Each structure stands twice: as structure tokens, then as C-alpha cells.
Amino acid sequence: MRYALLLIGLALAATAATYVRYESLDPCDWMERDLARQSGLPLIVVRARIRAEFLLEGITEPTATDCLSGWWEIRAEGLSEGT
Predict the structure, then answer these.
(1) How far from 21 is each of 4, 24, 57, CA to CA, in Å?
(2) How many Cα atoms sit within 13 Å of 20 on the Cβ side?
(3) How many CB atoms sit inside 10 A of residue 12's CB?
(4) Is the overall model pTM greater than 0.70, yes or no?
């Protein structure tokens, strides 16, 4: 029972921290905000670039899973570059 409460508490804390950082629980928003922060470009330009990348991959309507995998790729690149 304790472990279940601990897991629930950790999940709630992670959700709250994510919402505070990104003001959204949508992985597409996370990707947009991280790329805008890294590149220094306006958010509208970043959105257009992300949309173009998805279109090049044949994805016309990205799902949360598509955006989440893209966000993880961005995070992995940032970690390998040391940022």
C-alpha cells in the first residue's frame, strides 16, 4: 500500500512539475518550447519548422506519440552536446 501511494505521489509531482515548466501537458508544446529556447527563434518559426519536419516524414497530423518521440530526440541531442 505504501509503495502504491509513493508511486501516485511521484506521478502527481512529475505531472505538476511538467505543467509548471511547459504550461501544458501536450508533448508537441514541449517540443516547440524547447526548440524555441535552444534556437532563439520565434515560436511561430519553430512551429513551422516542426510541421515541415513531420511532413517530410509523411506525418500530416502528428499524434502525442510522434511529438513525444521527437521531443526525446531533441533532449538526447541536447545532452550529447552538453546543453
Answers:
(1) 26, 8, 29
(2) 6
(3) 10
(4) yes
